[in-house]
Design a protein that fits this description.
341 residues, Metallo-beta-lactamase, Chain A, 23% helix, Rossmann fold, 9 helices, seven-stranded mixed beta sheet, alpha/beta, binds zinc ion
């Protein structure tokens, strides 16, 4: 059988990728009749889809973020279970990005396309590891698609944090980390590194941390920092670690800790200027996205002759992918920002 070229049945629209024979969008940026969602970060998962398909964990996170009424008809699809949607077969494979994150395998006309969503290859104790799925077209993200982006082992970065805590015993360390995924990963890595004291969290992280614990991720003792508006004066958290969303470390909120050491955990911390802009004292290069080497490792493992790039930095990847024998092109999808980078 001659394979039907996915180019003919996968359309790039201003609202996201549209699978014509399945009549559904992937991670659309508007409320739609039917959406398959890779993971629950805000730039991929929106509320208001009539029907939404995702892993059970992704749907639960969406419920926590958007409320019970986030979709008329949510449909949980476990990793590996096949589902026929109109004229296509889909199934989900772990992406190793955050809890519940998935790649979407789409089979139609004898061809298989895999949409990666956001993914990484470094070990993460809070979610299932990325699985390479053979395919004809691999549609990849490229948030860190430049050779300069090489993420060190996360455990080594955590060690830097713990060394600093040992050194500055009279100061509190406030770590900026994205609320979904990064925050829980940092806590989990701290536990793995033998840090067993209570870890303090900003109130905005509580619901998601609770959900991770409910799903079996061990976060140890976590304590929510009391709301600033209800408490006056400084909080005595000398020598403690506080995890907060990145917006909070640039906010008045952080001043209640006296003279804290400002820490930020993000792949962008590779760029010194970004760390300076955010007044970060201790940048930690910990990312939930693939770095340059992981991107190319993945392209080779999935064995796809064609690589399409959804969002991120495309030019360097296209150039290098062509050199390495792939046919590569940019889809330039809009509306994806960098939540969870
Ligand atoms: Zn993401
Ligand atoms: Zn993304």
């Amino acid at each position: 059988m001659i394979k039907k070229n996915p180019q003919e049945w996968l359309k790039v629209t201003k609202n996201g990728l549209f699978v014509v024979p399945g009549n559904f969008f992937i991670d659309p940026n508007i409320a739609s009749d039917m959406a398959v969602v890779t993971h629950a970060h805000a730039d991929h998962a929106r509320s208001g889809h009539k029907k939404v398909i995702g892993t059970p964990e992704t749907l639960e996170i969406m419920k926590v973020r958007f409320g019970e009424a986030f979709s008329q008809s949510p449909y949980g699809l476990e990793y590996g279970r096949k589902l026929t949607v109109n004229d296509v077969t889909i199934w989900l494979a772990p992406a190793g990005h955050v809890l519940g994150s998935s790649q979407i395998a789409i089979e139609h006309g004898g061809a298989r396309v895999v949409v990666s969503g956001d993914y990484k290859r470094q070990r993460d104790p809070t979610c299932s590891p990325f699985e390479a799925v053979n395919c004809d077209v691999f549609i990849t993200e490229a948030t860190f698609g430049l050779p300069v982006f090489k993420h060190p082992k996360a455990q080594l970065e955590i060690k830097k944090l713990l060394n600093s805590v040992d050194l500055f015993t009279d100061r509190c360390h406030v770590v900026g980390a994205y609320a979904l995924g990064k925050a829980q990963r940092i806590i989990s890595l701290l536990r793995e590194s033998g840090y067993h004291q209570a870890i303090f969290i900003h109130g905005a992280l509580k619901k998601l941390c609770d959900l991770y614990v409910e799903k079996g991720v061990d976060l140890g003792e976590i304590i929510t920092v009391p709301d600033s508006r209800k408490k006056t004066g400084k909080l005595d958290l000398e020598g403690q670690i506080v995890i907060a969303p990145p917006s909070a470390i640039a906010d008045r909120w952080v001043r209640k800790f006296g003279d804290p050491v400002i820490v930020m955990a993000s792949g962008w911390m590779r760029i010194k200027q970004r760390a300076r802009q955010r007044n970060v004292d201790l940048p930690l290069v910990i990312s939930d996205h693939a770095d340059w080497d992981e991107l190319f490792q993945t392209f080779h493992e999935v064995g796809a002759p064609e690589i399409w790039i959804t969002h991120g930095r495309e030019e360097a990847i296209i150039h290098q992918a062509n050199l390495e024998g792939f046919k590569a092109k940019a889809l330039s999808l809009i509306g994806y920002d960098e939540e969870g980078a």
